[in-house]
Amino acid sequence: MEDFLTFFTTDRLIEIAGLAVGLAYLYFEYHANRLVWLMSVIMPMISICIYFRAGLYADFAINIYYFVIAVYGYIAWTFGFRKKERKPLPISRMPLKMYVIAVAALILIFSFLAWGLIHLTDSTVPYWDAFTTALSIVAMWMLARKYVEQWLAWFIVDAVCIGLYFYKGIYFYSGLYAVYTVIALFGYRKWLRLMRSQEH
After folding, report:
1. Average pLDDT of 50-60?
2. The pLDDT value given to residue 5
3. Is the model more confident about 149 or about 21?
4. Which helix (H) or strand (E) holds 118?
5. pLDDT value at position 112?
6. Are 191 and 32 in contact (CB under 8 A)?
7. Domain boundaries, the chain
8. 96-132 in b/e burial notation, b at 16+ Cβ within 10 A?
9. I need a surface site. Which of 71, 129, 136, 157 has the fewest CB within 10 A?
10. Half-sphere exposure at residue 62, Cβ-oriented, CA atoms within 13 angstroms
11. 60 with 31: CB under 8 angstroms?
């Protein structure tokens, strides 16, 4: 009984809260509901505490970005980008030129983060932390633009995070990202159906 109680430390309870919000986030993202952005405001507040204490400094920093882009995403999903029309943003395929921009951004962000983590922190997993963070930044931008391919980017992030978080002892988040990995595939198919239905 004592071992059971000591397992549920403050850190564990914060992880459980993050797990609950993360599942709500996933539900709203799956259904392309703009409430996903409300979860995107709450989730970083929880994750900042977890990642800093675990020494995942890039993941800590990205949650500041998540907080800012949540506002951007809500506005984009609600009003779109065309000032004259002001209608909700539709789900769409990512244009080829955006792929070029996304890959270039991924390489630059990864290089910057990896260098910083190696030279400025005591991170034990600088390359993996930098990779998941860099790809998450790109994937979050893709989500804000409502590109269906954002699910594929998240699938890669989530699959890597399962092992990374388990290695760092963040077990509830490791389990959460295992769920994310599976849902990412279903989410991709769901958004394809939603995209086709909005075309009719």
Report:
1. 77
2. 46
3. 149
4. helix 96-120
5. 95
6. yes
7. 2-198
8. eeeeeebeeebeebbeebbebbeeeeebebbebbbbb
9. 71
10. 25
11. no
Angle at 55 between CA 50 and CA 61, to 5 degrees: 70
Q: Is-contact 158 180, C-beta < 8 A?
A: yes
Contact 159, 87 (CB under 8 A): no
- The percentage of residues in the chain with a pLDDT greater than 90, rounded to a whole number, is 42
The pLDDT of residue 121 is above 70: yes
CB 54 within 8 A of CB 46: no
CA dihedral 186, 158, 22, 56 (to 10 degrees): -170
Q: What are the residues whose beta carbons fall under 8 Å from the beta carbon of 155, sequence distance 6 or more?
A: 181, 184, 185, 188
- What per-residue confidence (pLDDT) applies to 4? 47
Residue 2 has pLDDT above 50, yes or no: no
Please report the pLDDT score of residue 80 as a whole number.
74
Q: What is the mean pLDDT of the chain?
A: 85
**What is the distance of C-alpha 52 from the center of its chain?**
17
Alpha carbon of 134 to those of 13, 32, 97, 143, 159: distances in Å?
28, 23, 19, 14, 15
Query: Tokens 């020494």 map to which residue?
Result: 55
